[in-house]
Amino acid sequence: MSRKRPVAIAVTAVTALCLLAAGCADSSTGTASNKSPEAQAGSGSGYPVTVENCGEKQTFTKAPERVVVMNGMSVAEVSSLLALGLGDRIIANQQSYGKSEVEGRAEAIKALPTGDVKLNDAYDIPREAMLGLRPDLVLSVTSYGFDAKNGFATRDDLSSVSANSYISPQGCDDDPSKMTVADSYTLLRDLGKIFGVSDRAEKLIAESEKRVDTISAKIAGEDKPNVMVLFSNMAMGGNDFSAVVANGIINDILTKAGGSNAFANSSRTTFVDLSKEKVAATAVDELVVISYNDPAPEAYAKKLLKEFPQWPAAKNNTYTILSDSMYLGPSNDLAVDKLARKLHPDAF
Known about the structure:
30% of the residues lie in helices and 15% in strands. The strands form four sheets. Strands 4-3-5-6 form a four-stranded parallel sheet. The chain is of the alpha/beta class. Helix 6 (181-195) packs antiparallel against helix 7 (198-218). Helix 2 links the parallel strand 3 (67-69) and strand 4. The protein contains twelve helices and twelve strands. The chain has helices spanning 37-40, 76-83, 105-110, 127-132, 155-160, 181-195, 198-218, 249-256, 276-280, 297-307, 312-315, 332-343; strands at 49-53, 56-60, 67-69, 90-93, 137-140, 164-167, 226-231, 241-245, 260-261, 271-274, 286-290, 319-322.
């Protein structure tokens, strides 16, 4: 699988997924309850609200009702909206990983409207199509999604038609290499403020923080195994291994799970483009394969273990398959939990 644009690390605190359009997340495990539109979407007092975002002030006089979620190779934004019970506000969504650690989330994302627009070469919504959707809020994982050079509607374009715009945390410079789990919480808090559902956002954040803190306490003082994280069957560069993660939110998740990125020192950017020789020479204790719209990530993981039998991971036949929980968004605690149990089974 190849993409014309690097996957934006994003993607994503604990979460529940509201499976109904009027459902709202009641806990980290995900329950849905039916509520009136007024109760659901922050109608009533509290507006106007202003959010500082990438050097711009975005003022909302009411909760947005026509939301467009740009692709950006992320599911952080759409998953956060669903976790907050705001799926009925989305008129066009381009985000999907095909799989999720949260039961029902992938199916709920697939069921969202796409706006029936023709995408550009970056698999996203071009300027004229965007303006034709008449959004009142457009979400982009990085500033890339609002760059006129890429054929997108700019933030000024959107403002001229009374639409607000939002770039997710650490996305202002189109560089997610410094992203951490705290940025997932910032995304939830900002969306909670924008839609008047801050109570829901704070509940999700508190549940996630509690879960991660409990896990961290269990594995305190343990050795940190070397972990290789890469996308399943994806090419983003010229070498054999061009979709290997070096920096970003994944490193923070690994740290919280008691692991260490085996290739963190290989690049300052989010991804590193590695030769087969470099990969072979590195001791990999645990292999983590990220499934991005790949129906067979397990087969890819097994192929790598067979290709590098010298790895400790291969000798122990150990690997982990993850998806949206490894990125910016509402379920990083699920990745921390799964990885910690795999890396330190005796602690649980």
